[in-house]
Give the backbone structure.
Amino acid sequence: MTSLPENLIADAESPEWMSKGDNAWQLTAATLVGLQSVPGLVILYGSIVKKKWALNSAFMALYAFAAVVICWVGWAHEMSFGKRLLPFLGRPSTALGQKFLLERAFLGRIPNASMVYFQLVFAAITTILIGGALLGRMSFQAWMVFVPLWITFSYTVCAYSIWNPRGWLSRLGIIDYSGGFVVHLSSGVAGFTAAYWVGPRASRDRQRFPPNNILLMLAGAGLLWMGWTGFNGGDPYSVSADASLAVLNTHVCTATSLLTWLLLDIIFFGKPSVIGATQGMITGLVCITPAAGVVQGWAAIIMGMMAGSVPWYTMMILHRQIRLLKKVDDTMAVFHTHAVAGTLGGLLTGLFAEPKLGRLFYSANNWQRYTGLFYGLKTGQIAAGFRQVGVQLLGMVFVIILNVFTTTAICLSIRFVAPLRLAEDVMQTGDDAVHGEEAYALWGDGEKYSSKYNSVQAVDEIPPPPNEVVTKIGLYELQTAIK
């Protein structure tokens, strides 16, 4: 077998156009985003739900990540970033060819392989966020079909229209730095729409749905927060000052939002809610995402205050007053944390976008683009400022209509293949009925145990206590009785 000459091997390993620093950061940023899903949202979903749904909720996230990987390299990447098929969609094609993967990406000094990987984890987390609205009642078989269909017919259209330089909204000059529209607004609207068609959880679950492990929930939330460093810091596709600015703005906005939500909970409910603080953290992350690298620090603080208060109001006040919001069972409140926060972030981006940062990020020289309204009023470019707000609003309307339509069509189509919603008896049982497995081996739900015996001893070897003892005394007294 003939080997390649050394000079050709060296060129393939480090071509002149590639920046090793940029590529290293891009791979790191992509991995941070991947960790937001696996294990971040896997842990968050598995712990924030009722104990009987822990396994199913976590596995919905894990399955979605794996399914999107195959869809992305199989056809969805090129539909999002490839050659033009329609003004809002690229041609389906694989992203697996060696020549293609080693070539320079159209953005940055990185190879296509890094670009495919980075965009892959964005697509994956978007579908997992949709799943948050459907926990506790969607058929797993229906979810298996839903994920590839939604990635193919909804996500690719948003990504091409907004992020691909050939896309119609991109050509108009929409600002979506890292996915406020493509990821969060689309997942929030799609999740809410799918929740409408799937139907609500069992009435008992909807009335009371306590988290099975709040400490573990915080661990998942922490992975989500820290992973956002790669989410927003990786979008310049280079180790640049703009990437540093985006990272800092992300954490400033998120912290401000969390504290704002916390203060509102204390003022109106008298107690600092841990779950509420987590929701405030998420809304801050979502709100800053479309603006992270194109706004200044003072704007990030204002956006954080808005992100911690506006979604709080829609979730805590309006949700109880608007009939449609009360009717739709959105388990993880993705409508408020992602659709509302994403809409808010997109609008505020149109107000606060600093034109120099915008043109730096988009490599544009047209002064009429990427000028926030407040800067337009300050510099006399009023028409440019209003134009930017108009483009942002147009993008929101497009994403909302697209996701309502495509998600509805997908859900109605799946009904012909499999039921969307689990049967009532299955919903009463949970994980064991769906998967034949349970998340925890705890007293009353899994294998019985006693401190008198080691942790691996079989159930049959432990003498059972009298029934009346089981019903009348607690775990500590029960262990004492067995002894």
User: Anything to note?
Assistant: Residues 444-463, 465-483 have pLDDT under 50 and may be disordered. The CA atoms of residues 321 and 393 lie 26 Å apart. The radius of gyration is 24 Å. The domain at 20-425 is CATH 1.10.3430.10 (Ammonium transporter fold).
